[in-house]
Amino acid sequence: MPQGSSHRVVLVVDDQSNPFEVGCACEIFGGPLRPEVGFQLYDLRLAAPRTSTPMRDGLFAMTAVGRLDEIDRADTVIVPNRPYVETASRPVLLAALRRAHARGARLVGLCTGAFTLAEAGLLDGRRAAVHWDLATEFRQRYPRVKLEPDVLFVDDGELLTSAGSAAALDLGLHIVRRDHGAEIANHVSRRLVFAAYRAGGQRQFVERPVPAVADRSFGAVITWAQQHLDEPITVADLAGQAGMSAGSLHRRFRAELGTTPLAWLTVERVTLACRLIEQGGYGMDAIARRAGLGTGANMRSLFHRHLGVSPADYRRRFTV
User: Fold this and answer.
1) 274 and 178, same structural domain?
2) By residue range, what is the domain housing residue 236?
3) Is 238 inside any structural domain?
4) What is the pLDDT of residues 71-124, one digit of tens each?
5) CB neighbours (10 Å) of residue 310?
6) Percentage of the chain with pLDDT > 70?
Protein backbone atom coordinates (compact mmCIF):
# COMPACT_ATOMS: atom_id res chain seq x y z
CA MET A 1 0.00 0.00 0.00
CA PRO A 2 1.44 3.44 -0.89
CA GLN A 3 2.24 5.79 1.97
CA GLY A 4 -0.35 8.47 2.60
CA SER A 5 -4.05 8.77 3.24
CA SER A 6 -5.31 7.55 -0.14
CA HIS A 7 -6.83 4.40 1.39
CA ARG A 8 -10.32 5.35 2.50
CA VAL A 9 -11.81 3.54 5.51
CA VAL A 10 -15.51 3.98 6.15
CA LEU A 11 -16.73 3.11 9.63
CA VAL A 12 -20.47 2.48 9.67
CA VAL A 13 -22.41 3.20 12.86
CA ASP A 14 -26.03 2.28 13.37
CA ASP A 15 -28.54 2.23 16.20
CA GLN A 16 -27.05 0.73 19.38
CA SER A 17 -23.50 0.36 18.02
CA ASN A 18 -20.92 -0.32 20.73
CA PRO A 19 -18.97 2.91 21.37
CA PHE A 20 -15.90 0.97 22.51
CA GLU A 21 -15.47 -0.74 19.17
CA VAL A 22 -16.22 2.50 17.35
CA GLY A 23 -13.48 4.12 19.45
CA CYS A 24 -11.02 1.32 18.68
CA ALA A 25 -11.54 1.80 14.96
CA CYS A 26 -11.15 5.58 15.27
CA GLU A 27 -7.93 5.23 17.27
CA ILE A 28 -6.33 2.83 14.79
CA PHE A 29 -7.57 4.13 11.45
CA GLY A 30 -8.30 7.79 12.21
CA GLY A 31 -6.38 10.85 13.21
CA PRO A 32 -4.05 13.24 11.40
CA LEU A 33 -0.43 12.67 10.39
CA ARG A 34 1.20 10.50 13.00
CA PRO A 35 4.59 11.90 14.14
CA GLU A 36 5.81 8.42 15.06
CA VAL A 37 5.05 7.19 11.53
CA GLY A 38 5.62 10.25 9.36
CA PHE A 39 2.42 10.13 7.34
CA GLN A 40 -1.32 9.63 7.74
CA LEU A 41 -2.11 5.93 7.51
CA TYR A 42 -5.74 6.11 6.39
CA ASP A 43 -8.49 8.50 5.39
CA LEU A 44 -11.22 7.58 7.90
CA ARG A 45 -14.86 8.57 7.34
CA LEU A 46 -17.91 7.73 9.45
CA ALA A 47 -21.24 6.87 7.88
CA ALA A 48 -24.71 6.24 9.29
CA PRO A 49 -28.21 5.68 7.94
CA ARG A 50 -29.60 8.54 10.04
CA THR A 51 -28.49 12.06 10.97
CA SER A 52 -28.64 11.15 14.66
CA THR A 53 -27.64 7.65 15.76
CA PRO A 54 -28.12 6.48 19.37
CA MET A 55 -25.24 4.42 20.75
CA ARG A 56 -25.63 1.35 22.92
CA ASP A 57 -27.84 1.71 25.99
CA GLY A 58 -28.69 5.28 25.00
CA LEU A 59 -25.42 6.58 26.43
CA PHE A 60 -25.21 9.27 23.76
CA ALA A 61 -26.05 9.90 20.12
CA MET A 62 -23.71 10.47 17.21
CA THR A 63 -24.59 13.37 14.92
CA ALA A 64 -23.00 15.04 11.89
CA VAL A 65 -21.98 11.65 10.53
CA GLY A 66 -21.68 11.02 6.79
CA ARG A 67 -24.30 9.25 4.72
CA LEU A 68 -24.30 5.56 3.82
CA ASP A 69 -23.27 6.35 0.25
CA GLU A 70 -19.75 6.86 1.68
CA ILE A 71 -19.56 3.04 1.49
CA ASP A 72 -19.58 3.24 -2.31
CA ARG A 73 -16.25 5.12 -2.23
CA ALA A 74 -14.54 3.05 0.46
CA ASP A 75 -11.51 0.80 0.13
CA THR A 76 -12.23 -0.73 3.55
CA VAL A 77 -15.65 -0.84 5.24
CA ILE A 78 -16.00 -1.53 8.96
CA VAL A 79 -19.55 -2.78 9.46
CA PRO A 80 -21.62 -1.88 12.54
CA ASN A 81 -21.73 -4.24 15.47
CA ARG A 82 -25.14 -5.26 16.75
CA PRO A 83 -25.74 -5.80 20.48
CA TYR A 84 -29.18 -7.18 19.66
CA VAL A 85 -28.34 -9.68 16.96
CA GLU A 86 -31.97 -10.80 16.65
CA THR A 87 -32.81 -7.40 15.13
CA ALA A 88 -32.51 -7.43 11.35
CA SER A 89 -30.11 -5.05 9.63
CA ARG A 90 -31.41 -2.32 7.39
CA PRO A 91 -31.87 -3.57 3.81
CA VAL A 92 -30.21 -0.42 2.48
CA LEU A 93 -27.10 -1.22 4.54
CA LEU A 94 -26.97 -4.85 3.42
CA ALA A 95 -27.30 -3.76 -0.21
CA ALA A 96 -24.43 -1.28 0.22
CA LEU A 97 -22.21 -3.97 1.75
CA ARG A 98 -22.94 -6.33 -1.14
CA ARG A 99 -22.02 -3.61 -3.63
CA ALA A 100 -18.78 -2.91 -1.79
CA HIS A 101 -17.86 -6.58 -1.74
CA ALA A 102 -18.67 -6.97 -5.44
CA ARG A 103 -16.25 -4.22 -6.41
CA GLY A 104 -13.46 -5.65 -4.23
CA ALA A 105 -13.58 -3.53 -1.09
CA ARG A 106 -12.30 -5.03 2.13
CA LEU A 107 -15.04 -5.65 4.73
CA VAL A 108 -14.32 -5.84 8.46
CA GLY A 109 -16.77 -7.09 11.09
CA LEU A 110 -15.90 -6.30 14.71
CA CYS A 111 -17.50 -8.70 17.20
CA THR A 112 -21.18 -8.97 16.25
CA GLY A 113 -20.37 -7.30 12.95
CA ALA A 114 -19.95 -10.88 11.74
CA PHE A 115 -23.74 -11.23 12.03
CA THR A 116 -24.15 -8.26 9.69
CA LEU A 117 -21.79 -9.72 7.09
CA ALA A 118 -23.45 -13.12 7.37
CA GLU A 119 -26.90 -11.58 7.02
CA ALA A 120 -25.71 -9.95 3.81
CA GLY A 121 -24.77 -13.43 2.55
CA LEU A 122 -21.08 -12.53 2.27
CA LEU A 123 -19.71 -15.15 4.67
CA ASP A 124 -21.27 -18.26 3.13
CA GLY A 125 -18.50 -20.83 2.72
CA ARG A 126 -16.00 -18.45 4.34
CA ARG A 127 -14.16 -18.51 7.66
CA ALA A 128 -15.27 -16.14 10.40
CA ALA A 129 -14.85 -15.31 14.09
CA VAL A 130 -17.42 -14.11 16.60
CA HIS A 131 -17.62 -13.63 20.35
CA TRP A 132 -17.53 -17.05 22.05
CA ASP A 133 -20.81 -16.36 23.89
CA LEU A 134 -22.62 -15.96 20.56
CA ALA A 135 -21.06 -18.89 18.74
CA THR A 136 -23.99 -21.30 19.19
CA GLU A 137 -26.55 -18.75 17.99
CA PHE A 138 -24.36 -17.78 15.05
CA ARG A 139 -23.98 -21.42 13.95
CA GLN A 140 -27.72 -21.99 14.16
CA ARG A 141 -28.54 -18.92 12.09
CA TYR A 142 -25.71 -19.18 9.57
CA PRO A 143 -24.74 -22.86 9.18
CA ARG A 144 -22.97 -22.22 5.86
CA VAL A 145 -20.32 -20.06 7.52
CA LYS A 146 -17.14 -21.80 8.69
CA LEU A 147 -17.15 -20.40 12.20
CA GLU A 148 -13.94 -20.52 14.23
CA PRO A 149 -15.39 -19.83 17.66
CA ASP A 150 -12.28 -19.83 19.84
CA VAL A 151 -9.95 -17.40 18.05
CA LEU A 152 -9.33 -13.66 18.37
CA PHE A 153 -9.88 -12.86 14.71
CA VAL A 154 -10.02 -14.39 11.26
CA ASP A 155 -8.38 -12.92 8.16
CA ASP A 156 -10.08 -14.50 5.16
CA GLY A 157 -8.70 -12.18 2.54
CA GLU A 158 -11.11 -9.34 1.84
CA LEU A 159 -13.41 -10.46 4.69
CA LEU A 160 -12.08 -10.06 8.23
CA THR A 161 -13.92 -10.66 11.50
CA SER A 162 -12.98 -10.40 15.17
CA ALA A 163 -14.28 -11.73 18.47
CA GLY A 164 -15.21 -9.65 21.53
CA SER A 165 -14.51 -5.97 22.04
CA ALA A 166 -10.79 -6.01 22.86
CA ALA A 167 -10.13 -8.25 19.86
CA ALA A 168 -11.11 -5.26 17.71
CA LEU A 169 -7.72 -3.79 18.62
CA ASP A 170 -5.99 -7.04 17.69
CA LEU A 171 -7.69 -7.15 14.30
CA GLY A 172 -7.12 -3.44 13.69
CA LEU A 173 -3.40 -3.77 14.38
CA HIS A 174 -3.29 -6.87 12.18
CA ILE A 175 -4.76 -4.81 9.33
CA VAL A 176 -2.17 -2.06 9.86
CA ARG A 177 0.54 -4.72 9.88
CA ARG A 178 -0.85 -6.25 6.69
CA ASP A 179 -1.06 -2.86 4.97
CA HIS A 180 2.03 -1.08 6.25
CA GLY A 181 4.34 -3.68 7.80
CA ALA A 182 5.41 -4.75 11.27
CA GLU A 183 7.45 -1.66 12.13
CA ILE A 184 4.57 0.78 11.65
CA ALA A 185 2.14 -1.57 13.40
CA ASN A 186 4.54 -1.61 16.35
CA HIS A 187 4.55 2.21 16.40
CA VAL A 188 0.75 2.26 16.47
CA SER A 189 0.57 -0.37 19.21
CA ARG A 190 3.06 1.53 21.37
CA ARG A 191 0.95 4.67 21.04
CA LEU A 192 -2.08 2.64 22.14
CA VAL A 193 -0.07 0.99 24.94
CA PHE A 194 -1.33 -2.33 23.63
CA ALA A 195 0.36 -5.64 22.79
CA ALA A 196 2.04 -5.23 19.41
CA TYR A 197 0.79 -8.48 17.98
CA ARG A 198 -1.40 -11.28 19.19
CA ALA A 199 -1.91 -13.93 16.55
CA GLY A 200 -5.48 -14.32 15.39
CA GLY A 201 -5.42 -18.00 16.31
CA GLN A 202 -4.93 -17.31 20.01
CA ARG A 203 -7.79 -18.20 22.32
CA GLN A 204 -10.44 -15.57 23.04
CA PHE A 205 -10.71 -16.49 26.69
CA VAL A 206 -7.66 -15.49 28.71
CA GLU A 207 -8.10 -16.82 32.22
CA ARG A 208 -6.34 -13.97 34.00
CA PRO A 209 -6.57 -10.82 31.89
CA VAL A 210 -5.73 -8.70 34.94
CA PRO A 211 -3.59 -10.66 37.44
CA ALA A 212 -4.53 -10.08 41.06
CA VAL A 213 -0.85 -9.64 42.01
CA ALA A 214 1.78 -8.36 39.60
CA ASP A 215 4.12 -11.23 38.72
CA ARG A 216 7.50 -9.81 37.80
CA SER A 217 8.97 -13.24 37.11
CA PHE A 218 6.57 -13.89 34.24
CA GLY A 219 7.18 -10.47 32.69
CA ALA A 220 10.90 -11.01 33.07
CA VAL A 221 10.85 -14.32 31.19
CA ILE A 222 8.92 -12.67 28.33
CA THR A 223 11.53 -9.90 28.15
CA TRP A 224 14.38 -12.40 28.34
CA ALA A 225 12.97 -14.47 25.49
CA GLN A 226 12.45 -11.40 23.30
CA GLN A 227 16.10 -10.51 23.82
CA HIS A 228 17.31 -14.01 22.86
CA LEU A 229 15.12 -14.88 19.89
CA ASP A 230 18.17 -15.67 17.76
CA GLU A 231 19.17 -18.45 20.15
CA PRO A 232 17.67 -21.92 20.56
CA ILE A 233 15.05 -21.62 23.30
CA THR A 234 13.18 -24.56 24.75
CA VAL A 235 10.24 -24.66 27.11
CA ALA A 236 12.68 -25.89 29.75
CA ASP A 237 14.82 -22.77 29.17
CA LEU A 238 11.79 -20.52 29.65
CA ALA A 239 10.66 -22.45 32.71
CA GLY A 240 14.13 -22.14 34.19
CA GLN A 241 14.15 -18.39 33.64
CA ALA A 242 10.74 -18.15 35.29
CA GLY A 243 11.69 -20.43 38.16
CA MET A 244 8.82 -22.84 37.59
CA SER A 245 8.15 -26.25 36.09
CA ALA A 246 7.43 -26.70 32.37
CA GLY A 247 3.85 -27.65 33.19
CA SER A 248 3.36 -24.53 35.31
CA LEU A 249 4.84 -22.42 32.52
CA HIS A 250 2.36 -23.84 30.01
CA ARG A 251 -0.51 -23.06 32.35
CA ARG A 252 0.75 -19.51 32.89
CA PHE A 253 1.07 -18.84 29.17
CA ARG A 254 -2.43 -20.15 28.59
CA ALA A 255 -3.80 -18.08 31.45
CA GLU A 256 -1.93 -14.83 30.74
CA LEU A 257 -1.53 -14.84 26.94
CA GLY A 258 -4.02 -17.40 25.67
CA THR A 259 -1.38 -19.44 23.82
CA THR A 260 1.47 -21.90 24.38
CA PRO A 261 5.12 -20.92 24.98
CA LEU A 262 6.33 -22.31 21.65
CA ALA A 263 3.46 -20.79 19.66
CA TRP A 264 4.21 -17.43 21.27
CA LEU A 265 7.91 -17.79 20.44
CA THR A 266 7.11 -18.53 16.81
CA VAL A 267 4.95 -15.43 16.46
CA GLU A 268 7.63 -13.28 18.10
CA ARG A 269 10.25 -14.64 15.72
CA VAL A 270 8.12 -14.14 12.63
CA THR A 271 7.46 -10.56 13.75
CA LEU A 272 11.19 -9.98 14.24
CA ALA A 273 11.89 -11.42 10.79
CA CYS A 274 9.34 -8.98 9.32
CA ARG A 275 11.09 -6.05 10.95
CA LEU A 276 14.50 -7.21 9.71
CA ILE A 277 13.15 -7.56 6.18
CA GLU A 278 11.71 -4.05 6.33
CA GLN A 279 15.03 -2.62 7.53
CA GLY A 280 16.88 -4.15 4.57
CA GLY A 281 20.53 -5.08 4.40
CA TYR A 282 20.22 -8.78 5.15
CA GLY A 283 19.77 -11.85 2.98
CA MET A 284 16.91 -14.21 3.73
CA ASP A 285 19.10 -16.91 5.29
CA ALA A 286 20.74 -14.32 7.56
CA ILE A 287 17.34 -12.98 8.60
CA ALA A 288 16.14 -16.50 9.38
CA ARG A 289 19.16 -17.03 11.63
CA ARG A 290 18.91 -13.64 13.34
CA ALA A 291 15.20 -14.20 14.03
CA GLY A 292 15.74 -17.71 15.40
CA LEU A 293 13.85 -19.35 12.54
CA GLY A 294 16.76 -21.52 11.45
CA THR A 295 16.81 -21.78 7.68
CA GLY A 296 15.33 -19.73 4.88
CA ALA A 297 13.14 -22.69 3.96
CA ASN A 298 11.68 -22.87 7.48
CA MET A 299 11.11 -19.12 7.46
CA ARG A 300 9.25 -19.37 4.14
CA SER A 301 7.00 -22.07 5.56
CA LEU A 302 6.20 -20.01 8.66
CA PHE A 303 5.57 -16.85 6.64
CA HIS A 304 3.07 -18.69 4.46
CA ARG A 305 1.38 -20.13 7.55
CA HIS A 306 1.19 -16.91 9.57
CA LEU A 307 1.12 -14.16 6.93
CA GLY A 308 -0.05 -15.87 3.77
CA VAL A 309 2.92 -14.58 1.76
CA SER A 310 6.54 -15.58 1.19
CA PRO A 311 9.43 -13.57 2.71
CA ALA A 312 10.33 -12.42 -0.80
CA ASP A 313 6.79 -11.15 -1.38
CA TYR A 314 6.89 -9.41 2.00
CA ARG A 315 10.17 -7.71 1.05
CA ARG A 316 8.77 -6.49 -2.27
CA ARG A 317 5.75 -5.08 -0.48
CA PHE A 318 7.39 -3.33 2.44
CA THR A 319 10.83 -2.20 1.29
CA VAL A 320 11.78 0.47 -1.19
Assistant:
1) no
2) 207-320
3) yes
4) 999 999 999 787 788 888 899 999 999 999 999 999 999 989 999 999 999 999
5) 15
6) 88
Domain of 175, CATH number, reads 3.40.50.880
Provide the CA 20 distance to its chain's centre, in angstroms: 15
Among the three residues 192, 222, 240, which one is the final residue of a domain in this structure? Answer: 192
Q: How far is CA 102 from the centre of its chain?
A: 23
Name the pTM for this structure: 0.72
Domain with residue 305: its CATH number is 1.10.10.60
Question: Do 78 and 134 sit in the same domain of this protein?
Answer: yes
Distance between CA atoms of 38 and 180, rounded to whole angstroms? 12
Distances (CA, A) of 202 to 113, 197, 214, 234, 254: 20, 11, 23, 20, 9
Question: What tens digit of pLDDT does each residue of 7-57 get?
Answer: 999 999 988 888 888 888 998 998 766 666 778 899 999 999 888 888 887
User: What H or E segment, with its residue span, contains residue 69?
Assistant: none
Q: Does pLDDT of 306 surpass 80?
A: yes
Same domain for 105 and 235? no
What letter does residue 292 receive in the DSSP assignment?
T
